[in-house]
Amino acid sequence: TKDLGFGSRVVQQSRERLLNRDGSFTTTREGLGFFRSMSLYHSMLTMSWVRFNLIIVAAYILFNILFAAGYVFCGDGGLMGVTGVSLPERLAEAFFFSVQTSTTIGYGHITPTGFLANVLVGLEGMLSLLGFAVAAGFMFARFSRPNAKVLFSYRAIIAPYRGKTAFEFRI
C-alpha cells in the first residue's frame, strides 16, 4: 500500500519519502555534465536507420578518401599501375585502390611499391578490419536491441481502486 510505483524493493529498503506532499521529488539529480554524458554507442543505437546508414557510408567514403590521399602523397612511384596523369585522375585511381584494399577484393591492377605505400596498405588493412568489426557490432546491437511498442490511452480517469482514489489509464 506504500508503493509509489517505484517497486516494492525500493520501499522496503528506505522508509524516507521519495515524493513531497506537493508531488515534487525529494532527490536531486547529480552526475556527469552534458558533454561528458554523451555516448557514441548509445547515439548509434538510438538514431534512425536512415541516419545510421548515412553515417556508416560517410565514414567508409571518408576512410577511403584519406587513404587515397596518402597513396597520392607517396608520389608517382608509390603505386604501380596508375595510369592517370592529372591529380584528380590519380586520386580517383588511388581511391578505388583503397576500396579494393579495405574490402580485401584486390583485383591486382594496381600494386603498392615502396616502403611508405606498403606501410599504408598494412595500416589500411588493419584499420578496415577493425572498422568493419565495429560497424557489424553496431548493426548486431541495433537488431538485437529490444524496443517496446507501448501505446497509451487518450483518456484517463480518477476512480476508486483498492479503497483509495487512483489515477488510471490504459497501456
Structure report:
The chain has 171 residues and is mainly alpha-helical. 49% of the residues lie in helices and 9% in strands. The protein contains five helices and four strands, in the order αααβαβαββ. The protein has helices at 8-13, 40-46, 49-73, 87-102, 115-144, and strands spanning 79-80, 111-112, 156-161, 164-169. It has a two-stranded antiparallel ribbon. Strands 3-4 form a two-stranded antiparallel ribbon. The chain is elongated and about 85 Å long.
Could you outline the blueprint of secondary structure elements for this entry?
Layout: H1 8-13, H2 40-46, H3 49-73, E1 79-80, H4 87-102, E2 111-112, H5 115-144, E3 156-161, E4 164-169
Antiparallel strand pairs: 1-2, 3-4
Brief write-up:
With 171 residues, this protein is mostly helical. The protein has helices at 8-13, 40-46, 49-73, 87-102, 115-144, and strands at residues 79-80, 111-112, 156-161, 164-169.
Low-confidence stretches: none
Number of strands: 4
Approximate strand percentage: 5-15%
Oligomeric organization of the protein chains: single chain
Rounded to an integer in angstroms, the radius of gyration calculated over CA atoms is 29 Å
End-to-end Cα distance: 22 Å
Q: Which term fits the overall shape?
A: elongated
Helix content: 40-55%
Alpha plus pi helix count: 5
Describe the strand arrangement of the main beta sheet, using strand numbers.
1-2
Q: Please describe the biggest sheet, giving its number of strands, its sense, and whether it closes into a barrel.
A: 2 strands, antiparallel
Whole-number average pLDDT? 85
Compressed to H and E, one letter per element, the order equals: HHHEHEHEE
Structural category: mainly alpha
